[in-house]
Write a structure and sequence with these properties.
The protein is α+β, with helices and mostly antiparallel strands. It has 3 domains: 116 residues, no CATH class; 290 residues, 2-Layer Sandwich (Chloramphenicol Acetyltransferase); 196 residues, Chloramphenicol Acetyltransferase. Helices cover 41% and strands 11% of the residues. The chain contains 28 helices and 20 strands. It is globular, with a radius of gyration of 26 Å. The chain starts with a helix and ends in a 19-residue tail after the last helix.
């Protein structure tokens, strides 16, 4: 998602006022510290994982002790997730469900459990095999069949969220010669002959003089630390960045596109907050099943630990993310409304408050007539300021308003009750969706606490959204939580006929606690400057959202093609028509096949893609064959990146080592001076079983978006909504004379139709002007906004 902007900007984060920041730790010391941090993380997870996740025997300690089983059967679906209704929180947890208690109860079993270490080693060896990923679709070699049988034997039946962590392999360090070769191949289509020859000379000089030394340090780190790149990625790409988080780092997630379950703002907030805390409860008990590829290959679950209770703390040179685990039961959320801050308790002595009780608390805030104190209204704009500015002001704020600051930063998450409506409208569908996206991405610059792991935004007409801080995890993690939230609050919790949460208010609950900030005058100017900068940044962002409803993944599958590759090639065609040239293209993919893996870049602008685009523009007869070649090349790059053989993270880590060694490399300098004028990402749909897309096609998330990675570039994300719609989120900067989000949107629609016309079934599709049309709205939901109260909204999904 938004990491492309940070990846481009990390190099300046190593400088201050034009001078190199002194990285005082020798590289060996830094590698040692990386390993030490890894071991500390492992020890901090000891109690939970030791007590609940003995892989690969899969005989859970609660079962041995006669406790109720907490997990379900693993799935054979590609994502491997199973939904089961969350356990109600109104009753206290049984004593044996607490992780530390389970560990104490299991001490007589420790000699038996120690025998599991060899099995873990065997499992790690099995999971290090990636031949299955690189094989053509539908073809399975004999080694892969053997591997598949062994994985099934060692995987067992009962899994929990962190069950596989000890068995995941470490991310390998690719061959530096292969990385340089792949890099040169990726830039060949966009460089002139002269520039490419010069780049090749720099690359050969790098391989001859510096590569082996830098590679040796990376190999050493890969043996000692959990992951050779992820901790440096978090530090240098995110925490050392001095840019504003707003637009540059955060991203947003949208509500249902055509449906608003209730127009009552407090009710929607009550159900959504309750659903989010149910998710946290399942996370606490590890009842969220690990994501499995092919129904058996687990992905790393480490990023789930920071979904809740997490705040990114600013620093003068670099920030930090305190190790506050989501498994801690923080019992309040921080709420912002009309410039005022509140602390809202989420639990009573008997457990989590009901949705109706939470609605009551939010309604009390909405009805509170008290005004904001001077400067308090715009205080949160500081979290959108440059990080060093915010760090300096926060040190004063921590002294003058420690309790209020702790209540916000220590909350489970942040809730913003907006005073304006948002979402799709019949009167101006295109403009309303664009405004909705801009409100989620930036708001008014002072109504989000951008440091929090995520802000839940509830608009006055009941529309929802998320603004997510990027450093703690990547989009699939927050997306998994968001899918659960939307499905649970709408399908399981539901609303009464009058639009309120089900149940009854609780008059005995104390009023929400108003937070008061004692703001010294010396920071008033900082707040004003931060607000001015936030409004400038927000006003410069050009967002465009449109659902493409001519066809979706079902049509692409009938063409026997990868859905993602199909869209990526269409994006290459659209961008070429928009700008008249090819450019470096950033597509994010995951490396969670490895322990603590995060992301890798797929360089989608390949020689094969360029040949296809030229053939399309010249109407060549070979364009369909060239399209298939481009898709096959994209698939090979995607699979290589997922299996740890990508280009950019390796080059990034080599560059960091060179900085620690104060060893200048013209080749690495050039690599990290490149600009990504097209940054793209697919929003994965991971829990399709939560939504009945055939009977209720409008009840699917419409995805989300992020800011552009370059001042003269585009940010494009897309999500496959059901089988027949693809929703695109496009961003650019209004200050650029080279970009226009709406113009690119029209090019994307035309390109998709033109590519589809290469196939017989797609020749019946006709282009039309303007993206989202009024007839779409009438077809999807009759009149807008659509509020579902009763018969239209499924009160119980058949998938539950």
């Amino acid at each position: 998602m938004a990491e492309a902007h940070q990846a481009v900007g990390f190099r300046p984060s190593l400088t201050s006022d034009g001078a190199e920041v002194e990285l005082s730790a020798p590289v060996l010391q830094e590698i040692y510290l990386s390993g030490l941090r890894s071991w500390k993380r492992h020890l901090s997870r000891f109690w939970v994982r030791r007590a609940t996740a003995w892989f690969p025997s899969r005989i859970q300690l609660p079962e041995l002790l006669g406790s109720p089983r907490l997990t379900g059967e693993p799935s054979t679906s590609p994502t491997g997730n199973i939904y089961s209704p969350p356990t109600p929180l109104s009753a206290p947890l049984p004593f044996s469900s607490h992780p530390q208690t389970q560990f104490l109860e299991s001490r007589p079993l420790m000699p038996w459990c120690s025998l599991l270490s060899p099995f873990t080693s065997v499992a790690r060896l099995l999971l290090s095999y990636h031949g299955w990923l690189l094989e053509p679709h539908g073809a399975m070699s004999s080694p892969t069949k053997t591997w598949l049988a062994l994985v099934r034997i060692f995987s067992g039946r009962k899994t929990m969220l962190f069950s596989y962590q000890r068995s995941l392999p470490r991310q390998p360090v690719p061959s530096v010669q292969d990385t340089v070769r792949k890099y040169l191949e990726s830039v060949r289509p966009i460089l002139s002959d002269e520039d490419f020859d010069w780049t090749s000379v720099l690359a050969q000089e790098f391989l001859r003089l510096q590569a082996s030394l830098l590679q040796w340090y990376l190999q050493l780190k890969s043996w000692w630390a959990s992951n050779y790149v992820s901790d440096w990625w978090e530090e240098f790409v995110y925490l050392r960045s001095r840019h504003s988080l707003m637009v540059n780092s955060n991203y947003y997630m949208m509500d249902f596109l055509y449906v608003t379950p209730t127009p009552v703002q407090a009710a929607r907030a009550g159900n959504a907050v309750h659903a989010l805390l149910l998710y946290r409860h399942r996370l606490n008990r590890q009842e969220i099943l690990p994501t499995l590829l092919m129904g058996m290959r687990p992905l790393c679950s480490a990023q789930y630990e920071k979904i809740f209770n997490t705040t990114r703390i600013p620093g003068i040179q670099k920030g930090e993310i305190p190790l506050a685990s989501s498994l801690t039961e923080v019992r309040h959320v921080a709420v912002f409304h009309r410039g005022r801050f509140f602390r809202v308790g989420t639990h009573s002595q008997s457990g989590l408050l009901s949705p109706r009780a939470l609605e009551q608390q939010f309604q009390r805030i909405l009805d509170d007539p008290s005004p904001a104190c001077p400067q308090e209204e715009h205080l949160a704009a500081l979290t959108a300021a440059p990080r060093d500015v915010w760090a300096q002001v926060r040190s004063s704020l921590k002294v003058q308003a420690e309790d209020a600051l702790e209540a916000v930063e220590g909350a489970a998450f942040f809730v913003s009750l907006d005073s304006e409506p948002a979402g799709l409208t019949r009167e101006d569908p295109a403009a309303s969706l664009d405004a909705y996206a801009r409100a989620l991405l930036a708001g008014r610059g002072h109504d989000r606490w951008f440091d929090k792991s995520f802000t839940l935004i509830v608009f006055s007409n009941g529309k929802l959204g998320l603004s997510v801080e990027h450093s703690w995890a990547d989009c699939p993690i927050s997306g998994h939580m968001w899918e659960f939230t939307l499905a649970t609050e709408c399908f399981q919790l539901g609303y009464s006929a009058d639009g309120h949460c089900k149940g009854h208010p609780d008059p005995s609950l104390p009023q929400p606690q108003r937070l008061y900030w004692h703001l010294p005058e010396k920071i008033h100017l900082s707040i004003s400057l931060a607000l001015r900068g936030a409004k400038t940044l927000s006003g410069n962002i050009d967002c465009h959202v449109f659902p493409f409803s001519h066809f979706g993944k079902s049509f692409i599958k009938r063409c026997h093609l990868s859905s993602d590759s199909f869209v990526q090639m269409a994006l290459q065609l659209a961008h070429f028509r928009d700008r008249g040239q090819f450019c470096l293209t950033y597509e994010s993919t995951m490396t969670r096949l490895f322990l603590e893996g995060r992301t890798e870049t797929v360089r989608s602008c390949t020689r094969e893609a360029c040949n296809f685009v030229r053939a399309m523009e010249d109407k060549e007869k070979t364009r369909r064959a060239l399209f298939r070649l481009a898709v096959e090349k994209h698939q090979s790059l995607l699979k290589a990146a997922m299996s740890g053989q990508g280009v950019d993270r390796h080059l990034f880590a080599l560059y960091i080592v060179s900085q620690f060694l104060h060893l200048r490399s013209p080749f690495l300098d050039q690599v990290h001076s490149e600009q990504w004028q097209l940054a793209t990402s697919q929003i994965p749909v991971q829990q399709i079983h939560l939504f009945d897309v055939h009977n209720y096609p409008d009840y699917v998330s419409s995805g989300g978006g992020f800011g552009p990675a370059d001042d003269h570039g585009y940010g494009v994300s897309y999500i496959f909504m059901g089988d027949d719609t693809i929703t695109f989120h496009i961003s650019s900067k209004k200050s650029s004379t080279k970009t226009d989000s709406h113009r690119l949107g029209q090019h994307i629609e035309d390109a998709l139709l033109d590519v589809a016309s290469l196939f017989q079934e797609g020749q019946r599709l006709k282009p039309r002007c303007g993206g989202l049309q009024e007839e779409d709205l009438g077809h999807r939901c009759g009149s807008l906004p659509c509020h579902t109260r009763g018969s239209r909204a499924p009160t119980k999904s058949t998938n539950f």
